[in-house]
UniProtKB/TrEMBL annotation, chain A:
Keywords: Iron, Iron-sulfur, Metal-binding. InterPro entries: 4Fe4S_Fe-S-bd (IPR017896), 4Fe4S_Fe_S_CS (IPR017900), Helical_ferredxn (IPR009051). It comes from Neptunomonas qingdaonensis. GO terms for molecular function: iron-sulfur cluster binding; metal ion binding. Residues 259-291, 340-368 form the 4Fe-4S ferredoxin-type domain. This is 4Fe-4S dicluster containing protein. It holds the Pfam family Fer4_22. It comes from the Bacteria.
TrEMBL record, chain B:
This is NAD(P)H-flavin reductase. Its cofactor is [2Fe-2S] cluster. Keywords: 2Fe-2S, Iron, Iron-sulfur, Metal-binding. One of its GO terms (molecular function) is 2 iron, 2 sulfur cluster binding. The keyword Iron-sulfur applies. [2Fe-2S] cluster binds at C233, C238, C241, C249. CDD domains: sulfite_reductase_like (cd06221). Residues 1-99 form the FAD-binding FR-type domain. GO terms for biological process: pyrimidine nucleotide biosynthetic process. InterPro entries: Cyt_c3_hydrogenase_gsu, Dihydroorotate_DH_Fe-S-bd, FAD-bd_FR_type, Flavoprot_Pyr_Nucl_cyt_Rdtase, FNR_nucleotide-bd, OxRdtase_FAD/NAD-bd, PyrK_electron_transfer, Riboflavin_synthase-like_b-brl. It comes from Neptunomonas qingdaonensis. Binds 1 [2Fe-2S] cluster per subunit.
Amino acid sequence: MKARSATSFILPSDKLNSLIHSLQQAGYQVVGPVIVDQAIIYDQIKSADDLPQGWTDEQEAGRYRLKRRQDAAYFGFNVGPNSWKKYLQLPRRQVWQAHKTADGIEIEPVNAAITPLAFLGVRSCELHAIAIQDRVFLSGEYHNEDYKQRRQSIFTVAVNCTQAAATCFCTSMNTGPAVSLPCDLEITEIINDNEHYFLLRSGSEKGQLILQQLPVTPATSAHQQQEKTAINQAEKQMSVGPRVFDSSDLQALLYRNYENPLWSDIAQRCLSCANCTMVCPTCFCSSVEDTTDLSGDHAERWEQWDSCFTADFSYIHGGSVRPDTRSRYRQWMTHKLATWHEQFNTSGCVGCGRCIAWCPVGIDITEEIVRFQESDTP
Amino acid sequence: MIPDIFYVKRRTEEYPGTFTLHIKKKDDQPQTSFQPGQFNMLYAFGAGEVPISMSGAPHSTSVYIHTIRTVGLTTQALERLREGDQLGVRGPFGRGWPVEKTTGKTIVIIAGGLGLAPLRPLIYHLLSKNRDATDIHIFYGAKSQPEMLYSDELKNWAQQLTLQTSVDMATPGWQGNVGAVTSLLTTAKIDPENTIAFICGPEVMMRFAIQELIKKNLPRTSIYLSMERNMKCATGHCGHCQWGPTFICKDGPVFCYEEIHDWFHRTEV
């Protein structure tokens, strides 16, 4: 856990709206967790009433259920099927439009108006996921301009996790549960027998400006001790397993085991449905679609999320380079945990557990890692 | 990244189903220079965009030349383009052949089928350097004689450098070699100390070509090859062209065999 040097403040839980309203006043559209179709997803928040207060998520391999809590916690759950990437790398967007003219053809960019967003309730693993996508889209020779503009305009309110879902394994990937990357505001929700409050701390100038407007009081060392205890609880939950493993050598492990028959075993269970790539907060692959209208004089190019689990993904004349589920699952997992290091100098996995919960057949990446480790002969 | 508008200055048919477009930027504006081995993304209005390697002379950028085989909807749309018709172009992209490493070396170029197209800018570059003809050896294999690219040029090259050709299937009048292009290599004399090899063609052909070169003790660091994968963005963002740890679009398409030999002999990567 990083040193907590910034001054902490206390915001009573019934004043949470003041934070949301201050962000709105500052020109942000606030997006955060809401319940839709019996899952906690991210969507627009008008007030604290929109938050999933008193709900938690119960997760296991291939299983996700909402459940009532015994208390009135606002952030008493972990992560759902959405990640913040849907606001930074849009699931579908128009890139350009083209027209036939008397003179030939012309192509013009489509620049969507970008609303500054405030992300309310970003988990530490999700901050890490955003940082990983930054490396994909903003490092190197070419930048993704649409991503860059959206990314630059966000405000992040990060939440320390005080509980872990059964599918969480951020401690194995060194990304949480305590907020361990910069954010604009960091909050921790504390609920005791007779009190319910948030600890707040700013992490940027933007965050400081918002914090100044809130009805806060300085936190005491007792408050900070409570925060520490609460975050430790999440760490403890994860440390008892079963999803604890040593992630230090995964790159070499998977390179050594590229031809391991275990891939065929996984392929017998995997449906190649692409769910894991859609819920993954770091998966960045996209495809483009070129269309015309009926006249044939107007064309559009759209970019949309794509997945390495589809047959089209690796298609070149003559067929798909990865023709079966075995090669596609191997690509996904080897990319996430091994080749990602060579490409972007980081793992592509943050330990959020989404791919485990949302796999329809309950394939568990941590369980598969351990199986590779057990069958490995270095 | 928005494509620039180009128009077809000249169109030639290599053989049925394979054609060459000479394209110029709209209003004849200056075009970016390129490295042999790089590629452009060509956009056919409303149909799609495909990566096509540069086939023209790198020192003359008044026109880009692309040789294209019709294999899908986008290349079909490109095939329908006639002189004066317009298309979108993004590029040039990727890492090309390491021309700076050719100085003082004997050059071995091995091309299979359409694989000659990305090698032609390199050949132009080498010929423009007034090199000793005996220093350049081209081994070119095609399905049959009618399916050889740049047939007039091949005759010219044969006067200036050492050209050996082979076909999979002899057609009437063919008096040359029959068999895989790699069979020509078995008898070739290669000085492993002073040779650099450039290969482009179907992966299976490149595998056998590399096997022959390694047998002749050519070090892995002296072998370069050009790879092909599905590409959408050409800027390393869409993920399609991943090949092991590399993105073909930005880390390739040309690779030194030394860098990728572990991945090259694995299938379904």
